[in-house]
Design a protein that fits this description.
homotetramer, alpha/beta, three-stranded antiparallel β-sheet, about 25% strand, globular
């Protein structure tokens, strides 16, 4: 939940939850400024005997609390995991990392499908028993392909789209369908090396660390809210190819952490930045 | 605050604070198990118009909340910084780090005195305008020196004692006077290399990382609750002397972070472990 | 190569290589003490036109250089990758990491077989087209199983054995067959938490970092020369299960780096420690 | 030394050194490409009985080796530490770090003077017994101040100039006097956040890591060869002021490591990049 900060929010929310028989398991909050700033809170609670249906519970919360504090809010139910689509091109490292972690229960989601503009990742996807959809794209067919893509996502009731090194730029129109629900991995420490070939640029500049950045996709290329970043040390010994190799290890970890944070409902966005509560 | 976990704690505490006009600035909690485990919470709140004196406020909290939930609790007032004594022997790096951070407002404490069994650190201490007390110690004079030490600490109403590479083992009797209020820096990644000469032992074992550990001092040498740890990479090129040099950088950072967490009231101990809430 | 340090070694070796038409690509050296210590050197060179057969070249080096300086030495040929066997039990993370890196050309080796005391990893192994051998073991059958194991390794002319979370302790007799050629991953920051259940021990001690250690296997459990170590940060929020999960990410990276260093002939052991030259 | 790569360089140099009675303590090399690339080498050697004067030795090396391979080369003598000037404005953290490490023998240099455009750091400088020169500067007096600065540096035979958060941009003319001998610390992970107020920019962009970069100063602001970089993790909890505080810890470590590499003659520059050999 998010609302203008003022005294009494925590009291009101926790009192509401207590009255409805909920036990608060975890609570984290953040305020841009206790005096007149914006307040953010994430509460994890357990409802043993939900004495109302979910929709009644939500309506009650809205009427009793949310309206009073002018809140943006949402409730996610742990028994209803998000539905995640993975888009991929030819590189396997991010896809494999997500599939392996999903298989081990680290990513709480259903993955009804993987979509690609190439056939290369079919075998890997199917070895994890996930349907693979091949949607090739060219300059001419882009609008058409995105329409097919949107239809597929809608048909599968997808909540979140992960670009696991999907090497196509999505149109502004496409992005509008999934605001703050498309996660991309960019293979540089943003805002350094925006755009194409970041490892080549990093090599040419002679940096001593290379990085990767997971962010929500917005209209502006590589300018969306940053979710997670990390770096690895490199040296003069490492050529451009070696940077690609070392970078792979960072990309897959950073993307996996960002996806995990999103699926665990630990992220709130505000003014093109993210609040990522601890896991 | 800490108590057996059960529904309604957050609601009760936040309602109490709201009623008394407090605005909750930050709140963090932890539970070892929501069903029958132990619950821990740290709330930071602002009391604009404290409508009671501090002692009346505390009594009200005790009667209304703490007794009901069988809480251990304490309130620290930001306008009353802790009083910290630093004990040191001959090494300057941890002492200098603490003094520099204190000077820059990073450590919210008063430092009324520095105590040492050597004269070496007098100049440094006095350059930061902090009185320096020289209390030499030998095997024979140990009991006597500790008595003088305790008297000095009591006279200066010390809340927390930091051993900034103080090369003496404090007696069990001494430790009893400051339970969970003496912070030591051990120059290894505990529990590896307990006891004397950890860098020499690390060198002999051929480890690829060396570490440092800040912990509360208990009766058992190097066995108290760990507050903070960190490591640095070393290689076959680094001899035992070089490990000492690299280790200094880790020691001072780890100790500074641990002291900061303690002074900010971010640590709760439980069953020889620490809960360290984020800063 | 390794020998007592004295002036003239680099000159003699590089002169020999030059005379035989080799271009030195990389050279790294280390000395425990330039006065009377032990000298270690790794040279990578390119022989465009090897004007002798390999065995003649080696004999020439031995006669002209090695005997004079009392060297231990070996030559590895880049056109003859090492033959590596992977032993595994039920956990897939280390195995998958090695297979994926091998597939991407990061590990210069042939992997003629994977051996396990369980059937669990057959599917994964075979999806990478590597023959899987199931050799179950019990207390009674241990000697017999190890004999079968040794025979398999010998039949496949194995150079190096990687224990990718192989949950059996190899007998001293077995280890003797592959001195400094068996690499194990231990799931703690050795020498902390030697033996079984290191994550449980780490959780009980309340450490703030957990680690993993890759080492050569010797007679003494977890006491062999350390090749590589790394750590990850944990907090009071992380239960014992979570440590296992976080630890997996460290284990697979540390093991992969150690195996890579071994396969690239970048490791020399000396007095139960390793010299690991940069990659 | 640096020259076009070809067979025989190591042999020739090491043979020359051996002939002159030198024992090679350490040797590291790098080649951009063994076929037609550029070769770089750093050799550390001990001349017990230098059977020539230094200048004769250097002339012999030049005639016998350097001319033959078209080398750029230089010899630094461990008994003649470099002379280092530190330029500072009002922040103390980088200056204190350098002075403390110098006092502990970590930085092999003489520091004959500290120069500032403010008086603030006089006390600190003089507490380390280093003369402090106050050279105020304004837009109008800039040329004049730089002339005075250059004169001071020349009078003290300065080899290397360290900008320890010196908040003035040096003119192109000034820089020409000390090519690859002026080291600056920039408080961002370059090339991100070039120019003024990088922490403010980092805060506004919402990055999850902040960094610092030590580089040689060239005509182009923040575009010189990067020597060393590092980062620290930040979160939504950290405001712009907190980034400044966290950044200080990175700045001082990164600058100290870069200065140490320069003073140890471990850096070679090539095409606006650095080769930094291991310490």
């Amino acid at each position: 939940m998010s609302c203008p900060d003022k005294p009494g929010i925590v009291a009101a929310v926790s009192q509401f939850l207590y009255t409805h028989g909920a036990n608060i398991i975890d609570s984290q909050q953040h305020s841009t400024d206790p005096e007149g700033g914006q307040f953010f809170m994430r509460m994890v609670f357990k409802l043993k005997d939900l004495n109302l249906t979910k929709s009644l519970f939500e309506r009650a919360f809205n009427n009793a609390i949310a309206e009073k504090f002018a809140m943006h809010w949402r409730i996610s139910y742990a028994d209803t995991p998000k539905r995640m689509a993975i888009l991929v091109s030819k590189y396997d490292h991010c896809l494999l990392e997500l599939l392996w972690r999903h298989q081990h229960g680290e990513l709480k989601a259903e993955i009804p499908l993987i979509i690609s503009n190439h056939e290369d990742m079919r075998l890997l996807s199917e070895s994890y028993q996930i349907p693979y959809h091949y949607l090739p794209v060219s300059k001419e067919s882009k609008a058409e392909q995105e329409a097919a893509l949107l239809k597929l996502l809608a048909n599968h009731q997808i909540d979140v789209v992960v670009l696991a090194r999907y090497m196509q730029i999505l149109s502004s129109d496409f992005v509008k369908h999934y605001p703050e629900r498309i996660i991309n991995i960019h293979h540089s420490f943003l805002p350094a090396f925006i755009g194409a070939n970041p490892y080549k640029k990093a090599y040419d500049r002679g940096v001593k660390l290379i990085g990767a950045t997971a962010h929500y996709v917005t209209d502006d290329l590589d300018e969306g809210p940053i979710i997670e970043q990390d770096v690895a040390r490199v040296s003069h010994r490492d050529g451009a190819d070696e940077l690609v190799r070392i970078g792979r290890d960072i990309e897959r970890q950073v993307l996996a952490r960002a996806v995990n944070a999103h699926l665990s409902n630990r992220i709130i966005t505000f003014e093109n930045k993210t609040i990522v509560f601890g896991g």
